[in-house]
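haha ok so turns out i had the wrong file open the whole time. this is the CORRECT one, sorry everyone. sequence first:
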Amino acid sequence: MTLQLATQWFPQVFAGSTLQREQRAARTRCLLSRKIHKKLERRHEEVAADPNTTRGLGPQR
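then structure:
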């Protein structure tokens, strides 16, 4: 039932061969993980730049 509704609401997602769907899913996962990675990098840079928050986060240099 859920799959049937999904195919009606988002036909472009389910169009094409299984390989094409797998490739689209892989591309989406890659984009999401890249976005998450960049957010974590930015947060790390902010924390590393703030001397008040670096205490207790590992060895100090």
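The mean pLDDT is 79.
again sry for the mixup
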